[in-house]
Design goal:
Blueprint lengths: L2 E5 L2 E4 L4 E8 L2 H4 L2 E6 L6 E6 L5 E3 L7 E6 L4 E6 L8 E7 L9 E6 L1
Parallel strand pairs: 2-10
Antiparallel strand pairs: 1-3, 3-8, 4-5, 4-9, 5-6, 7-8, 9-10
């Protein structure tokens, strides 16, 4: 079994920053490779970022240069540092096990202009 708990969402002004966290509980096969997704109202859920067990990071084009994914293996936690936030970043953000089909409950990010 895998359990994911996101935190760190909130409301910020455009240009501001937030840091999301995802604590992962479960077998390393699933939790050592993690991804972030987001979904805005009326939109399809979209990929944001992924970090592999060897710290290789990938990003959606829309967030490259602004978001940074990282992980702390000792804490079994994945982070998403979001800088220079834009109103179009407003969405529910979810962490997900990359190699398994487990999702967190989501944390809301709202960016005002």
């Amino acid at each position: 079994q895998v359990h994911l708990v996101e935190s760190g969402g909130g409301s910020v002004q455009a240009g501001g920053s937030l840091r999301l966290s995802c604590a992962a509980y479960g077998h390393p096969y699933c939790t050592d490779d993690m991804s972030w997704y987001r979904q805005a109202p009326g939109k399809e859920r979209e990929f944001v970022s992924r970090i592999t067990s060897d710290d290789t990071a990938t990003y959606a084009d829309s967030v490259k240069g602004r978001f940074t994914i990282s992980q702390n293996n000792a804490k079994n936690t994945v982070y998403l540092q979001m800088n220079s936030l834009k109103p179009e970043d407003t969405a529910m953000y979810y962490c997900k096990t990359s190699l398994c089909d487990y999702w967190g409950q989501g944390t809301q990010v709202t960016v005002s202009s």
